[in-house]
Amino acid sequence: MTKVLRLPDPLSSNLQHLKGSETIAINAEARRLRALGRDVVDLSVGEPDFDTPGPVSAAGIQAIQKGLTRYPPNVGVADLRNAMAKHLSDLSGGRAVDPDRIVISTGSKQSLFNTCFALFGPRDKVLIPSPAWVSYPQIIHLARAEPVMVPGEVEWGLKVGVKDLERHTDKLTRGLVLCSPCNPTGAVYTLAELKAIGDWARKHNIWIVSDEIYRRIHYGQGPAPSFFDLPDEYLERTVVIYGASKAYAMTGWRIGAAYAPSPVAKAMANLQSHTTTGANHPAQIAAAAAFSDPRVEQEVVKMTAVFRRRRDRLVERFRKEAPGVEFVEPVGAFYLFFRVDGAKDGLTGSKFCDRLLSEHAVALVPGAAFGDDRWVRLSYATSDKELEKGMDRIMACLAEFEAISA
Ligand code: PMP
Ligand code: GLU
Q: Is 0.85 surpassed by the pTM of this model?
């Protein structure tokens, strides 16, 4: 007798808007194809191709050997919070950074979730400059608040200004999620721009969630401008998101942090006391080494120099080989965002990426994932060799579309 499979009850309305992460899905597809033996160049996911610096891994191994394998303090181990506070203070000219306001979590993705869940809820609107990293609107929805996308200005590297924010603000607006250096564009807000946005937020009593995970990967002078570079009053209604994943090549260790006013930090700690009981203990010890060991600092400088060299090479190739293709010149992070609708009338990022993967074996992320499907994101956090091969194929694919439209 055949067994009738019963459908499960419908899922809860908590997940009514939920879609899986496109960046993670495309990366998984590229890996699947590679496992089948296809020579796929994966320029989709934002994950450094470097190994975690030696002293960091050694600190993690020693932590395990020393038996630091029990539950960690829920907010994070003191060594890590102190090291991160000192590091953030050093990056901003020695300003005061209170370790007690830092909550360590399982990647900055969880820090963002904790922050949004603690600050926003039903009926709240939260502004997100667009294009935006895939997870922001999803996290806002999970908090049952409403994401409001604010399109960036094309002439301005797709950044937003106070006028853009003002146009989308009403009395229900409670927050803004800002990302600088920006995923997916690589644009960076200047300190004057951050200050203007900070003044606007203070005027309207709006919370700023400033995602500064790419702060160290900056091609201007020193680290990218931060809310830590502004006077104390700009941190009164601001939560800064930081972490180890990107600049320290530690994506798999899953260590992130939020720096928040004390009552918010306390609420987030309570929240994660019921969800994760704090981040992985040995990984926290490894991250403490990342933020304090001068040898690691040298590695960060070297890795950033490599990202810069790759950025220069990509920009040069786009200018020379595809002069009609518009792109945002990256000032930070490791993404290049380019526009495909000019190559052929009506061409979308999704159509371009489908053909690029099926015919040319290169994985990129269509702009649709970030809210604007006229564009495509390329991650250059991969080896020079793969990058050159990927670029040859991208240029060939662009030329094919241009030939169809000619
Ligand atoms: N913010 C941005 C803008 C990102 O691109 C990422 C990438 N995963 C994250 C946060 C989360 O990083 P992680 O959880 O690895 O710290
Ligand atoms: N942030 C990276 C990206 O945008 C990693 C994947 C993810 O977490 O979305 O590709």
A: yes
Q: CATH no. for residue 31?
A: 3.90.1150.10
23 lines ligand 2 (CB under 6 A): yes
Domain count, the chain: 2
Give the N- to C-terminal CA distance of the chain in Å, as an integer. 61
Does residue 46 line the site of ligand 1, with CB under 6 A? yes
- In this predicted model, what pLDDT tens digit does every residue of 179-217 receive, in sequence order? 999 999 999 999 999 999 999 999 999 999 999 999 999
- The answer to whether position 6 is within a domain reads no
- Residue 12 scores a pLDDT above 80: yes
State the SS3 of 28-41: HHHHHHHHCCCCCE
How many Cβ atoms are within 10 Å of 396's Cβ, its own excluded?
13
| pLDDT greater than 80 at residue 1 | no
Q: Is 257 a pocket residue for ligand 1 (Cβ < 6 Å)?
A: no
The tokens of 5 are what? Answer: 């499979």
Structure confidence at residue 66 (pLDDT): 98
Å from CA of 23 to ligand 2 middle: 6
Whole-number pLDDT of residue 61: 98
Do 47 and 127 lie in a common domain? no
Distance from Cα 379 to the centre of ligand 2, integer Å: 10
Mean pLDDT (whole number) for 378-401 = 97
CA 127 to centroid of ligand 2, rounded, Å = 20
Number of CB atoms found within 10 A of residue 228's CB: 23
